[in-house]
């Protein structure tokens, strides 16, 4: 194997974290900001890209970092190396309520396609690349744009899904229609395209957008019930805006509640 072999355990329900056990000189690569805690003896280092081209000179590092820039991620990642003489543990947390999905790339032919912000961490040696859409409609209206993230290698990777996770195994030719924002990822043999909802009433009043994704098997698909964009949109819509109504809108108390809890300033 070219990737480091790591053991892991996932804890929690709504706000999960993954605990990874590292043998001496084993390492894990993670997105900046996902670190939660670690045992003493693990060294942290910031690197360009995913660390897969660190032995290929400056151009290799720039190429690796450039791929991440195209997917909208930071140029830098963090690698955690166990320098202790025994096993050490390190944990990474979910960025928002949902589920952490362990992806064993050896079970998926060494490649897994996921949305751009789904990646959490992986064994060092796993390559984070870009997957270009060759279909104009998918790139313009698919919700994920022309570029998705591609995980390659023979190690473990961990991605994050919002809300509740659904895992669907599609037979050859079987089609699954999904909201474009609810796709977490899929195996390399799945064909991803978009389809117009159709119908004037559906288009204008349906509230589900103009397009949905079609995923055609064979392969495995992961779907999330609450993508971060939808969560953020609902929080923003519910938050009081300048001159807008307060959170007591529709209540019997109305503004009296604000007086009682001190929200109104005099």
TrEMBL record:
Q: Which Gene3D superfamilies match?
A: Mitochondrial biogenesis AIM24
Report the Pfam families cross-referenced here: AIM24 (PF01987)
User: What start and end residues bound the annotated signal peptide?
Assistant: none
Could you list the residue ranges that cross the membrane? none
- The domain of life for this entry's organism is Bacteria
Entry-linked PANTHER family:
ALTERED INHERITANCE OF MITOCHONDRIA PROTEIN 24, MITOCHONDRIAL, TRYPTOPHAN RNA-BINDING ATTENUATOR PROTEIN-LIKE PROTEIN
Q: What is this protein called?
A: TIGR00266 family protein
Organism, by scientific name, is Flavobacterium microcysteis
